[in-house]
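Q: What would this chain look like folded?
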Amino acid sequence: MRFKIAGHGLIMDFITVKKIASEAINPAKLIEQVVSQIKEHWNNKRFIDSVFCDVLFLLESIISSDQDVKTDYVHKVLDEVCLPLLGKIHPSFDSRVENLAALTSVSSLCGTCLLKAEESRAVELVDQCLGLLGSYSEDADWSSEEGGTMDIYGCVSVLQQTSKPSRNMVSPSIQSKLLRGYLSITRAVKCMKNNLLINMTLNCLLNIMNLSADGKLHRLTSVWELICEEFEAGSEKPYILLCGMSNHFFPVNNSNVVLDLKCKDAFWRMIEHGISKRTPSSRKQTMYLLKRITDICDTCGVSVRSENLFQWGSGSKVTTEIWEDYILLLETLEEKQVHIIKPVLPRLSKVIRATKTDQNGQGVLHTSWLTAVFRRMLMHESIYVVRWAANTILTLNLNLCPMLEQGQGKYFSGEFLLSIQEQRLFVRPEGAPAGTCPPCGEALTGFFRNCWEVLDNPLAKASFFKDIITTILSNTWSPVPLQFIFEALSKIPSTPILDAAALLDLKNGVSSSMRTWDGFTRGTVLCFCGKILINLINTETTLPLDFFSTLTIFSQQESLCRGTSLWKDVSDWLRIVTNGEQKHWTTTDIKTCIRDQITKNLAVKGGCESGLDETDILLTVRMILLSLDADILALKPRSEPDTYCLTHCLQSLSSTINDFPSHPYMSVIKVERALQLMGGLMTELGETTDEVHQFIHNSLVLSFTSTVIFIQQRLTEGWKEISDLPSLNLCCDALSLVVGRSHDAQTSEAVVTLSKKCLQSLQTLEQLQDSAENQIRRLGASAVLGAITSRAANQKLVHRLLSLLQPSTSFIPSTFVKPSSENGISQKEWGVLASDFMTSQWKIVHFYLRNTQSVSCDTFVSMETCIDYLPVSSGEATVILFSCIKILLPLLIIEGRQDTVVQVLRITWTYLLERQGKGTSFWIYLEGYTDMAFQRALMTRPQDSPVTQKLMELSGELLEIGEEKSGVVNVLLKHLLSQCPLPMENFLSLVVQCCMFGPIYKKQDRLLMDVYSYVSSLGPRLAVNQLHPWQPKTLMVRVRLVEFLCQLSPQNPLHHSFANLLLSALLEKYQEVVQLSSGNIFINSLAHRQKNRLMQFAVVLEPFISQGDSEGVLLRLLEFLSLEMQPSVRLFQEWICTRLLARFLDLIPRLWPAFVTIREKSSSGLCSLLHVVAHVGPLQTAESQELFYDTALPKVLTLSMAHHFHIRIHAQAVLSLLWDQCKALGLKGVLSRHGIVSACFVLFDEDNNSTKNMRKILESYFLAVLDPHRDYSVETVFHTLPRLGLLNDDEWIPPHYFTMYPKDSFMPLMNPDPSLAKCEESAWHFRAQNETESEETGGDIQKKIMPWRLMNPDDEVMEELEYAKRRQRSDGLILVTSLIDKVPNLGGLCRTSEIFGVSEFVINKLRYVEDKMFQSLSVTAHKWVPIREVYETCLPEFLQQKKSQGYTLVGVEQTANSVPLNDFKFPVKTLLLLGNEKEGIPADLIGLLDVCVEIPQQGVIRSLNVHVSGAILVWEYRRQQMMAGKAE
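A: My prediction, written as structure tokens:
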């Protein structure tokens, strides 16, 4: 009998072939034919087709079923099939599923053959496999791909199949070989990296273990030793091995335990570590082991006690419950949905209580188990779980939960700190006001203090907190977590922790990690760091120089500045320390340090040609000034002649400088160092004007003349080399200090002389041949002159300098040409030289332009020259060029060259845009540009002027940039308000844009704003708030605009005109926003915020509305009431209307027609109109009140019977309020004429629901509390009402932001009455309170807990083989989805197919499986269910093929002959075809089906989603098969 192997499957049905084979008269011939066909097939193909699995299984069946098969034929199969195939299959290099499935089949065939082969042959093959394993153990990179050598997978697979218990009986010689090779196989695992290979090897070890009980302890010990080695190496293998050997290590009945790991801490440490492994498979294996052991302990009544980590008392119900809760927690944490996890989290409190120790120091649970579950929670995907875990840890009572006592301190000081680096942990609590400390930050402070209190040993405290500091300094941190950690550390009680090495680490670590942070954040962290420094320094192991050296990391601009709180804290601490008797820290020691440091700085050794670095200068200067403020160093000598004081310090500097003119051989470096220290002192003093500042200035001013003479000599000698540039910069800094401060006539004369010298040098060098030396000398002369002109303020000096500069136009400004001979100077260095030269040249030009009253652009420098230099400028030179252009632009206006002005604005704008990404430089350029472009001379041009049009265009672009780059609009507005005179007709639209400016913050930005607000709330306690106060830049745009408007006076005609123009523009803009945002506007959307902002400014401008304009404004606002849907916006409109009606009584008649017009358009607008009526009555004069109420009461009474619910209850509330007002005002006539109102109240009271809602409205803040006149303040408009109107708190502007608010403004800043501020947000809105999670464990929870006996801990590592096995299933249900094209449906059906055991899942295109949507819905089901690709066009052929194989073809479709599902019985071999989502099953395919089944329905809709339909039929199929199985 012949048969063929086809590429797509066996032509003859496989079951038929098996039947024929079993009945064959001569199976030997069949073996020969199969072997021949196999050989022929693999000779043509390199890789083995998956169809071989069926053929090899057939061959194995023939050999195993024939008891008399000859050995020769068995050897033939071994030699011609098994061994060649094993030499060709290399999963190490090609791990496709087909290869692995084929390997399994070949190995199984080989194992069957070895049972019937000669024993020597079997022993030889086992020896070969063991030898190859030994080679692999020695060389893990051993390659077996070439030469037909068996792959490592093949070796293991053969040994696994050979040792199988199902092989009946392994011969003694093979058994002996396998037992002796056990250790070799075990050692090989150490080098294996693939989990599948490890699992195969493990199965082999288990088979060998079962061959003999002798030596079992030795074999298990070898495995345990391997497990320990791999655990130390951080491998995942220990968990695979422990699960695989669990029947031997942890027998179910706890009998015959040869090696009891339950008593070993090393084992439990592995379990704890496995709980928080990153790989899900390791966590699953750990859970399997933990469940298995706890179940064994519970059911078998075993008492277990390891060295420290685990104990189980026999029959202890408490222990059982604790471990059940613990395991439940871990299992639930594998879920991702918070609603599943959240109810289980309170059970952790019971676990925590179980760690409490008794008098003997014993607890039910060791705290290391808490650490394990905390690790797992902190690595969870849900930020809610992570935040909950962090807060739980930080609020632990460490006195009751002895984690520190049981050695968990290292976890707290290391891994835990690193796990809270996520910024989202530090969020402000919902509903808490801005400036509230995040719970995690507050808990950190309490946690560190708790640790400090629990650690009673000073050495333990020092060690613990030093570890924390080491963790911080050895890792990279984001700003927010580090800020709160540093704050918490700064609040622990004083503890001597930081030694000299720690101070050095702190200095290096902090300075390097914060370079890229913004100044406010960096200053905040440094302020806390300063408190840590003085709180934790160990003065016994550190010297003063170590302390002062660490202080050099603190910036004067951001943290440590004289006069700030941090400076005071440091000086106070220094005073306390030096008043003691601490060695090296007495006042005498500090003075000695200062004297020695100055001496060291001024000492010049032979060959030393460098100045001091900034750190040395700062160290010396701060040591002097802090010692002064700490009363260690006196200003002047005291009674004792040898007392060292500030006078001695300054004399050392000034004498060095003053002696230079009379000592020509004095070291230049020494003088320069003295100048550095002098400059450092003046810089560090800052802007203070106290006695110390004056004393130092008066002492140093005596050396000013000598300083200028020294610089002149340096200029004469010349700075000639690139190495001279530090000296040049130092001299320029010193010169700026001299010229910028008050000085005598002698110093002024020296400065003039030096200026002459500079000009002479520049003129002379301009005519010389270019060389590197000449160019550097030119730079020196230009830089010195630039330093003088940039700081000169004395008018006599300015006049003399101008007269010197007048003849210098021929060589100022000039270019800096790179010479042909570079003298080893790099291109980058030449660029720096050229930039410095240009900067100094334009400083001179700017000085001249600034101080002359030129009427022509070409007197000294032309506009064209400025524009030519601009592209090659950078840094300070660019800013100076902008300043020069600013001076020249008005001259162009005077000359009538407006087109040139527009061109200059365009060119400079392009230059600015090109530098948007230049970091902090961009802000300097932007400031210079706006100062240049938006100056008064340009902004006062007519509206139709090209200049005005260009400025409007530029302002629009700046506004657009400002939406993305916070702070740009602030710069623009500053210049607009300061330079543009009222009434600003040309720029009203820009002002309106600024009124409504402000984007919606992203979540990350809001988090940072919350943190900044908290830091700001700390006030002057943090020096950064004194030096670098934070304010939200987008809010500050409106803050500055409010401050500007509130400086106006309603009585000033110019102010009045501007305010009315602005108000009209605001209302126009509001109407435009309404039209653009038609439809529902969600609360806190951008459109809602913009309308709210516009109305806020309209309220501010209300006092400027005159009687002539009042009617028009009122009518527009009444119209807006019918358009606006947001209550917060309508409230401002109601307020303006109320104030206008109160001011101008003749507007009252205009109010009543609005009841008709608004009612036709908007119910909410009508409610607002009712609110206006409720407020206006008491504000009328006594003469007009009766008329008002006589008119209002009937109208409101009519509305109180309205159909519309909201109109009705608002009208009832207002009617009640009006009636009470009439009573209070004593309007008896009105009460008598409208007695029906009183009768209506009785009717209203009968409706309890209306009465309840009416009461809520009457209690609302707008009707019950808000007074239109009393509460008219900035606080109400910009802070209180946005809060009460439920706007996000980033829209609230606190009063303290208005730092420049005028005292005599028409609008008060603060509300005189606090009643409104105390109101709650919208009294008729009720928020559901978050219920505190109970710590009780009762109640149902959603859980998906699998008993350990049903768990397969190795299912993921066996993925490929399981998949291959499933592909071989030839019966059961086939689900065909080739007609479905929606990926979510396919993913869901794949998951359903896997759950209910579908034999094969047929899909139109396999690429759908790679789709992320498919995989998210299938939840890894695609790994476990066999999937076949059958195109829709190939379905007819596929269906016919399956029909020929005995399948019943069932379609899910509603047809005339379809059978109801409840009446249909599924055959075992069923193919289920699902239709397309829209079209169903095509008619041509219905004809091929055996039957169509429909799902009985009750509703009107006649179709179900295809996924739902498929799931119902698949379940019904599985249900019927299960019922049939039970019946059998």
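The longest helix spans residues 827-851.
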